[in-house]
Structure formats: C-alpha cells, structure tokens
Amino acid sequence: MPYRSTEILSPGPADKAPLHRVTLTHDQRHLRRKLLHLENDDVVMLDLKEAVMLADGDLLALEGGGYIEVKAAEEALYEIRPRDRLHLIELAWHLGNRHLAAAIDEGRILIVRDPVIRAMLEGLGATVNEAVEPFHPLRGAYHGTGHHHHGHGHDPHHG
C-alpha cells in the first residue's frame, strides 16, 4: 500500500529524519497531485490542495507519521559566465525577457540546456559550458500565489 502525503514541511530539526527520499528534476518538483516513486521503489501519493514548487530538502509529511525528503535531481544545464558584473546583469535581463528559469549566482547563471539560447548568449559575449548539477532557479514574483499571472495585454504600460 502506498504512502500518502497532504502536507509539505520545510527542512527542519534532526527529529524529522526522513524515512525515504524522492529525487525530482526542477520541472517535476512543481506539482499538486501525483504518485511519486521513491528511491527504495516504494510510492507516495502526494495530494495537495494547490500546486506547489517543492524545494531541495522539503519534507512530505506522511499520514500516520514519518517524512519523505525531496532531493533535487542533477540536470543537464548550461553554465553561463559573463565578462563582468554588468554583463551578468545584461545576460540575466535577456533570459528573464524570455521567461526562462535561471539560477543566478554572483559569477554565473545556470539554465536548462537549449541550443538556440546558447547561441544567443554566445552572440552576446558570454562563455557557455555544459554542466550537470541540481537546478535551483529563482522563484518568480508570482510564486506565492500557487499559479502564474502575467497580466500581459491588461496593462497599457507593459512594454
């Protein structure tokens, strides 16, 4: 019989040691109701009231007690290196303008591999290398609402 979870907890004290783990890509971590396959081949039915974006280390609280830890899977990414700090801002702007998920550090940006975007970035003077690591992009401005609203076409001042 599968486990069932209807509650997500942020990583906490050691007294919440997980029974098992589930490893998910960035896209797989955005969900509401799904049967998840654990690393030990058990399954857990995640059944939430609304869609969430799970983070690495989050805990799925199991009915009847216990926790399942969420781990971010390693993914095929591009590591983008700018010439300098101002160039990093310019590159981040171009990626944001295309609504791409991005993890931004002080000296690099990570995105999911896309050859068209790679060519654009190299054309803008960036150094782009392949990387394989967990992907933790920034959460968007609309993250807390459970759904995504842009308002495109509704704001006469939107560019």
Class of the largest domain, according to the CATH hierarchy?
Mainly Beta
Number of domains: 2
Structural class: mainly beta
The N- to C-terminal Cα distance equals 53 Å
Largest sheet: 6 strands, mixed
**What would you give as the CATH superfamily of the largest domain?**
Urease metallochaperone UreE, N-terminal domain
The gist of it:
This protein has 159 residues and is mainly β. It has helices at 85-97, 115-123; strands at residues 3-9, 20-24, 30-37, 43-53, 59-62, 67-72, 74-81, 103-104, 109-112, 127-134. The protein has a six-stranded mixed β-sheet, with no helix packed on it. It has a four-stranded antiparallel β-sheet with strand order 8-9-7-10.
Can you walk through the features of this model?
It is a single chain. This protein has 2 helices and 10 strands. The strands form 2 sheets. Strands 2-6-5-1-4-3 form a 6-stranded mixed sheet, with no helix packed on it. Helices cover 14% and strands 40% of the residues. Residues 145-159 have low confidence and may be disordered. The protein is elongated and about 55 Å long. It folds into 2 domains: 3-72, Urease metallochaperone UreE, N-terminal domain (HSP40/DNAj peptide-binding domain), CATH 2.60.260; 74-134, Alpha-Beta Plaits, CATH 3.30.70.790. The protein has 159 residues and is mostly beta strands. The relative contact order is 0.18.
